[in-house]
Each structure stands twice: as structure tokens, then as C-alpha cells.
Amino acid sequence: MAAELPIPVFTSLDKALPDLETAAAQGVRYNSVVAEYEKRFGHKPTYIARAPGRVNLIGEHIDYVLFGCFPAAIERDILIACGPSQSGSGTSTPSTHVPGGVKAENLDPKYKPQHFVPMFKSPQGPSAAEEADAASNVHAETFWHLDIDKRELRWESYVKAGYYGVLNRFFPSPSAHPAPVDLLVTGSVPSGSGLSSSAAMVVASTLAFLAVNNKLDGVTKGQLVEMAMENEKRVGVNSGGLDQAASVICTPHSAIFVDFFPRLSAEPIPLPTPRTIPRAVFVCANSLVVSDKVVSAKIHYNLRVVETLVAARVLALRLGLSLGPSERPRIREVFSRWLGSPELESTPEKVKAGLERFLPEIEKLKPSPEGRKEGELGITMKEMVEWSGLSEAQFHDVYLSWVDVEAEYFQLYKRARHVITEAIRVLEFREVCLRAQATEGQLPEDTLRALGALMDASHESCAKLCESSCPEVDQLAELARASGAYGCRITGAGWGGCTVSLVAEDKVEEFIAKVKAGYGPYKNLEGDALKEVIFATKPSSGAFVLKLEE
What we know:
The protein is α+β, with helices and mostly antiparallel strands. The protein has helices at 13-16, 20-41, 128-135, 155-170, 197-212, 221-233, 242-249, 301-318, 331-339, 348-358, 381-388, 392-400, 412-437, 445-466, 471-482, 508-518, 527-533, and strands spanning 9-10, 47-58, 70-84, 102-106, 114-116, 119-120, 144-145, 181-187, 254-259, 265-270, 280-286, 487-491, 498-504, 534-537, 544-547. A hairpin with a 5-residue loop joins strand 9 and strand 10 (265-270). Helix 4 crosses helix 6 (221-233), helix 5 packs across helix 6 (221-233) and helix 6 runs antiparallel to helix 7 (242-249).
């Protein structure tokens, strides 16, 4: 399985990037990063950790309820050049040479240099403030402390988040000293675009600290995904693992079907687009509406997590399934109990058949229209507690004590319906790709139409049921279809960010010109500025470490 493979470590860029054109272009960039690192720190880096962004082709807001998704890594990425600090080098300070001290700099001048030192918690145990901080992080360890202000995230917060997992996993006592580190960050994934710049940053940071501390041996891709998921929770985002899995596990020319139940698995699946007539590519278009998952989490991302968790509990009770007062099952787990037999989940095809039978059961979450304004399908906090079968104190402990959420009405029915229909669409998308893979020679245009129709239906569900889109993204999606895309959908956490469109390769320039003419924020953009916000992309390789010569 792909998740069980080791983290790739290369000693030359042409081995890491086997496409000669890509390797040549990136070689200039990597050499520039090395030169700048040496200029700033007075010594060469020993490693460059690379983690790509990702585009989710289909399967939005269902990873954290354990249903499968279909992402691909993109060519845009985060690079972190890193090495052990050396006394008297560059602009280093004494604090960076204490065990574990870090000097972090960013090539983007708007991000200021940072120095920080992790503190091992006292033998007497954590303070009350530290306990409260740890309680806000799911599965948080309490060995080490690094200041991360979740209310006002800074760029180095993501570096610290990656460091946390390495410290707690590999340095469980103060006698085990982590190396002091100099690191330089650069990236080409637009922040807040929905292409997972934050996940790429945390994956690259985790890799950098593993490499400098000689802890890469024995760490699998799946373990890196799990570490990065836990690490990103340090910045207040309850991620389901899709972004990290795509950044770590993807391979060139393929997407991956990532499943999270009963455990993380990843199945590389070649995309049919290079063999269709016409050939097709995926085009990412940034709405330029910045999606800050952390700042707006209580009314957006984390609210969706809580709504789906409570929906799972209520649905389980209405299906006659037994639940203890402290249980917090996810919708996939309720679905699995409802099926009642592991054999019925033994293949994705059987899961799809089960989901199609399960879909009508979601109607059990629809509230009675009596006493509600017309069309309102949400319920109040008081109703949600009553439906859960828990006391107010129990409900708060299970569903609200670890996360901040805010809403007048909680949309359990809409969110659950989105989850099940989107999970079915992901499996249908996978089937189209596998049928194409089993077909020799060139593929008909109907293959593209089938994929595009699923993408369009996904966007409709994201906009109307998950309510994770926004007017600007909806406008971009409509423009994309009017400009010749086979299909278009929002990609990423939502509330801004990017769309992804399936477009004939020989029509890309025409497509981009039409979108530019129709979307106001693009009209004055030319050249590189336009290429930064709308671009075709190929599926990329996942994260790796480049070991540089001594």
C-alpha cells in the first residue's frame, strides 16, 4: 500500500523530479534557495524538505467524517531548506544554539524572521494554563510547549506546529536533546486559496525537523500523514487528513483515492485525461477571496465538523443503534454499524451500493416544518441537545468542550445529505477513471463529460447543502462552464479559495482569456500576475526530502 512506503529521500533533483523539463526549471529555484540560505546563515543547508499543495478533484467536507476523497498533488509547493545551526554563523544568535532552538526565515519579505526555543514542561506537570491549552488540541501531548496563538496565526505558527509532533514523538524526555536548527522557507502555493498551503507548510516543517534530527528512518508516508494531521490541529484546524494525504502520498500522472476507514489507505489511480480525445487538463482559478480556516472556523469549518458529528449521533439513535453517552461517532462509523457486516464494506463498489441504500435514511434528520419559517431545515441549539439524547452538560462535554462554534440554526440534515451524496460521487468518479484505465487506446470525449458532470453536481451540493461556497466562487464556476469547461467545482475548505475546472488541453489559453474577461478581479491582471491566479496543472509527486552534499 502507498501509505506504508517510506518517505522518499533523494540526493539529486533529477531523481526527485524525473521529468527533465520540470527538473531543469526547478533546479534554478532550488539553487537560489541554497544560495540565499548560505548568505543568511553562513553555512549551506543539509536538506531541502518539499511538500506540494493539492487540488481536490472531488470529495469536499467528507474526509473528517471518514469517507474517501479524490485529490491530486499539484506542482506548486512549499520548500524548507534546513540544517543544524552552527556557532557564529550568519546572523544567528546564542538562543538558536540551545537544544532545539530554531531560527526561521522566509524568502517573502512580508514575513519577518523568527527565533523560538521549545520548553520541556516541568516534572511537576503542566500548569493550569498549559492544561487548558493542551485540552484545546485533540490528542495533544504534554511533553513540550511552543507558543502558538490560535487567535492571530503567524507564518511561523505552521513551522512550530510541524515541530511539535517531532518533539513529542522522538524527544519524550529532557535528556534527549533536539538539534538547534536554521531554516529558510519559500513557497509557490497561494495562501488561503483552497490549495492547502497550510497543510503543505506543516508537512514540509514536519519533514524538515525529522531530517535535521536524523529521525526519517522507519517513518512511513502514512505515519507522516498522521503526524501532520495532529500537528495542524495545533493551529486550531480539525483537519480530516485529505490535504496531508495528498501532499504526502500522491504520485505523478495520477490522483489518489484516499479512504480513512477503517484506517488510512491510498490507492493511486491514473487519470484518463492524457488519453481522451481531446486531451484535457485541470485548471485552478483563485477567486482571490482569502479563506482563513482558523479565523472563521467557528462559523465555517469547525461548525461543519460539529454539525456532522451531531448528525451522526442523532441518525444513529433514529436508526435504533445503541450509543453510550460519551460516544462521538462519525457518519461513516454510523453507516458501517447500519450495514452490520464488514463484508458489505470490503470493496469501494460495495460501499457505493450500501450508500445508495443508506441515502433515504438521511430523511430521518429533516425537522418537522411546524413552527418554522418556510424552507428552514436547521434546528436550534436547544433542539440539537434534545435530539442528541444527552443532558446539556453531557452534550457540551462531548461536542463543544474542545471547539468553538457559533450558529443560530444547525443544519444537520443538509450536512448529512451532502456527505452521503458526495461520497457516492467520489466513488462514481473513481469508477469512470478505472473503466478508462481498463480500456486500451484513445478514450472518447464522453469520459470527460462524465467526470465533468460529477464535478458540477459536487459544486451544487457544496453550494446548497454544505454551504461552503461564496458568491465569487459560484460566479467563477458559472464562468468556467460558459467558457467551455466540461465541469467545474469549488476545491478546498471553501468560503473563498479556488475552483478546479476540467478543460480541453488545446483550449486552455482560450478558456483562461474568457474567464479573465468575465471575472472582475482578473481584468487588470497580465503576464505572471495572471498566471499566479489561474493556471493549468499536472498531477505532481508527493512530499520528499532532498539531501544535499556535505
